[in-house]
Amino acid sequence: MTNPITPPPELVQQWLCSDDYPCGPLEQTSITITTNRLQNIAANAAQWGADQELLACGNYLKQCAQWEEEDVTEFYNYRRPGQPSLKEQALKALDDISIASFEQDAANIIRRALEALPK
């Protein structure tokens, strides 16, 4: 299982306070944004940049004689796998919980996974 490409909150804060984009009296407009919204925007920007790089790499590989279309598709799928299966979600949920702090969402995932298993 892979995690989405997201910058850590500390890095987003560093970008926000960067000398490359000074905050001062010359700014014409000021906006307010929540930390979660800012993190979401930064994550989307990072994902977009990573996707653009992946497409550029895939296009380059298509030009290489030894790479066939199927190879490039396999490369894309490896770098951007789909959602984890219900079984994988259940196993992760089991890893993430302890008996003392059993959460309802985790219980629902485990229940759905168990119900999906053949008898």
What's the topology here?
Layout: H1 9-16, H2 35-63, H3 69-79, H4 86-96, H5 104-116
Helix pairs in contact: 2-3, 4-5
What's the total helix number? 5
Helix content: 55-70%
String of helices and strands: HHHHH
Poorly predicted residue ranges: none
Q: Main sheet?
A: none
- Average pLDDT for all residues: 75
Structural class: mainly alpha
**Strand-residue proportion:** under 5%
Taken from the alpha-carbon principal axes, the silhouette is flat
Q: What is the count of β-strands? A: 0
C-alpha end-to-end distance: 27 Å
Instruction: Evaluate the radius of gyration.
Output: 21 Å
Protein architecture, described:
The chain is mostly helical and 119 residues long. Helices cover 61% and strands 0% of the residues. Helix 2 runs antiparallel to helix 3.
Entry summary:
It is built from 5 helices and no strands.
Q: What brief labels describe this structure?
A:
single chain; 119 residues; mainly alpha; 5 helices; 61% helix; 0% strand; flat
